[in-house]
């Protein structure tokens, strides 16, 4: 802390000079790290070392779009929660920190820079999943992802046209009954990841059923759909797409079947 001196010749002059010096010292005691880009669906993680005095951690405050969201952080790493944003929202991060240390953002790529690539449109209909882009790199990949069994799963993979101009794509969907959640993930040659916003499609097709629930050698499904068979420990032992699931040779016991965005229990004799 600065204490102005009032002792000695011309004490008023030294008092003012000491106040000015004190203010300059306080201003220079903090530095700032900033990052801006477009939200791609994930949070930021920050490495936060100890300051030189080994008593306090480096980061003082964290701002998101000029709103303070964190302060007095007492850990060697922390997460900046961006989950309230939607895909491609503009975000600016500012981290103020002590001048004798430096925090490090571990995954800055999750905020897309103003790069040339972008998704122009994305839509889902009964017949197709459609999207358009601009600024593609050759041999980039697109993954059509569908939310199933509490996970985003890639159900289609498409190579980019790589023209550098607008790309137009359409693939057949894999609708399940009820609400279907889709998004597109793009990955360029440098490993950068881009996402569309999530789009929902309500399918009115009949619910997938299966039989029997006490199985000898196979399960028959009412529709040709993706499926997973899990044992009682949650390990996947069968996975695929079709109307029949061959189960001959697996041990007797209770198993679980993931179909049509739901989980069913059955018994293997």
Order of helices and strands: HEEEEEEEEEEEEEEEEEEEEEE
Number of helices: 1
Termini gap? 78 Å
Strand content: over 45%
Number of strands: 22
- The rough form would be described as globular
Q: Which structural category do the helix and sheet elements fall into?
A: mainly beta
Q: What is the residue-averaged pLDDT?
A: 84
Radius of gyration: 28 Å
Explain what this protein looks like in three dimensions.
- It contains one helix and 22 strands.
- With 269 residues, the protein is mainly beta.
- Strands 17, 18, 19, 20, 21 and 22 form a six-stranded mixed beta sheet that branches. Strands 4-3-6-1-8 form a five-stranded antiparallel beta sheet.
- The longest helix is centred in the first third of the chain and has 18 residues, at 11-28.
- Residues 1-29 have low confidence and may be disordered.
Spell out the blueprint of helices and strands:
Blueprint: H1 11-28, E1 30-39, E2 44-47, E3 59-64, E4 67-71, E5 77-80, E6 90-98, E7 104-105, E8 111-112, E9 118-124, E10 129-134, E11 141-148, E12 151-159, E13 167-171, E14 178-187, E15 193-195, E16 199-203, E17 210-211, E18 214-215, E19 218-230, E20 236-246, E21 253-259, E22 262-268
Parallel strand pairs: 18-22
Antiparallel strand pairs: 1-6, 1-8, 2-5, 2-7, 3-4, 3-6, 9-10, 10-13, 11-12, 11-14, 14-15, 14-16, 17-19, 19-20, 19-21, 21-22
């Amino acid at each position: 802390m600065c204490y102005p001196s009032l002792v000695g010749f011309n004490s008023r002059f030294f008092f003012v000079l000491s106040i000015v010096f004190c203010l300059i010292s306080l201003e220079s005691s903090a530095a700032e790290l900033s990052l801006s880009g477009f939200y791609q669906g994930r949070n930021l993680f920050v490495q936060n070392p100890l300051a030189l005095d080994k008593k306090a951690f480096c980061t003082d405050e964290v701002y998101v779009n000029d709103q303070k969201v964190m302060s007095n952080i007492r850990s060697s790493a922390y997460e900046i929660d961006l989950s309230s944003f939607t895909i491609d929202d503009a975000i600016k991060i500012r981290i103020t920190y002590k001048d004798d240390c430096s925090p490090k953002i571990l995954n800055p790529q999750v905020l897309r820079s103003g790069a040339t690539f972008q998704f122009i449109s994305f839509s889902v209909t009964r017949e197709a999943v459609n999207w358009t882009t601009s600024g593609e790199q050759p041999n980039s990949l697109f993954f059509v992802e569908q939310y199933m069994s509490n996970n985003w799963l890639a159900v289609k993979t498409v190579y980019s046209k790589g023209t550098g101009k607008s790309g137009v794509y359409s693939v057949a969907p894999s609708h399940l009954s009820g609400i279907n959640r889709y998004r597109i993930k793009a990955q360029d040659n440098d490993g950068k990841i881009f996402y569309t916003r999530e789009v929902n499609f309500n399918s009115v097709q009949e619910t997938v059923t299966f039989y029997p629930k006490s199985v000898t050698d196979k399960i028959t499904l009412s529709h040709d759909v993706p499926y997973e068979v899990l044992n009682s420990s949650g390990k996947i032992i069968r996975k695929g797409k079709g109307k029949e699931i061959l189960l001959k040779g697996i041990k007797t016991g209770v198993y679980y079947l993931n179909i049509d965005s739901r989980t069913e229990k059955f018994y293997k004799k």
